[in-house]
């Protein structure tokens, strides 16, 4: 499989097709995460997002290697789902009235992205397992596990700090 107009005639084709979209999603996220890290006022959120950026960069490399092994020509496309999630995140941050609200909006939006990625990598791990491709099953499973770790860290931060701060933000008026 190597062109844009290809048909999907097997589970293997479907895995390759999905992997292309995952790579595009990772690149889109890799490009926007540094901006979001700068916008966060919480040092703990910045730290988690920096770790997430490392995972995204690792996933990008692993997917590129997947393409080399599978002899797939990577076609640059926009992952429409990721694009919509990024646009929604930008809108929420922009509408936030102060730093605490913006941090809560950013954290929640990143978790939505994270949940999307957990499901996509989990599905690809299952496809790889069904295809008896242990190597890629492990790669997709590891990506899913990394996403779950970030999700757990974000959930704890939301419960213990971000949501509490957003509940009663300190408003500075000039």
For this structure, the quaternary state is single chain
**Radius of gyration, Cα only, in angstroms?**
18 Å
CATH domain class: Mainly Alpha
User: Count of DSSP helices?
Assistant: 5
The percentage helix is over 70%
The CATH architecture term is Up-down Bundle
Task: Characterize the biggest β-sheet.
Answer: none
Number of domains: 1
Number of strands: 0
What is the CATH topology descriptor?
A: Ferritin
Quick overview of this protein structure:
With 174 residues, the protein is an all-alpha fold. 80% of the residues lie in helices and 0% in strands.
Describe the structure.
- The protein has 174 residues and is mainly α.
- It has one domain (17-167): Ferritin, CATH 1.20.1260.10.
- 80% of the residues lie in helices and 0% in strands.
- The longest helix has 34 residues, at 134-167.
- It is elongated and about 55 Å long.
- It starts with 10 loop residues before the first helix and ends in a 7-residue tail after the last helix.
List the helices and strands and how they pair.
Blueprint: H1 11-39, H2 43-70, H3 80-95, H4 99-130, H5 134-167
Helix pairs in contact: 1-2, 1-3, 1-4, 2-5, 3-4, 4-5
Keywords:
174 residues; mainly alpha; Ferritin; 5 helices; elongated
């Amino acid at each position: 499989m190597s062109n844009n107009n290809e048909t999907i005639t097997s589970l293997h084709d479907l895995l390759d097709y999905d992997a292309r979209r995952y790579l595009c999603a990772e690149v889109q996220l890799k490009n926007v995460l540094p901006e979001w890290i700068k916008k966060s006022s919480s040092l703990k959120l910045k730290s988690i997002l920096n770790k997430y950026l490392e995972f995204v960069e690792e996933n990008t490399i692993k997917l590129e290697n997947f393409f080399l092994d599978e002899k797939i020509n990577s076609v640059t496309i926009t992952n429409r789902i990721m694009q919509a999630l990024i646009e929604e995140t930008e809108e929420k941050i922009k509408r936030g009235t102060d730093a605490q609200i913006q941090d809560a909006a950013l954290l929640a939006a990143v978790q939505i992205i994270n949940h999307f990625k957990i499901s996509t990598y989990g599905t690809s791990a299952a496809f790889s397992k069904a295809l008896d491709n242990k190597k890629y099953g492990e790669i997709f499973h590891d990506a899913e596990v990394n996403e779950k770790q970030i999700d757990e860290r974000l959930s704890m931060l939301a419960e213990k700090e971000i949501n509490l701060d957003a509940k009663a933000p300190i408003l500075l008026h000039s």
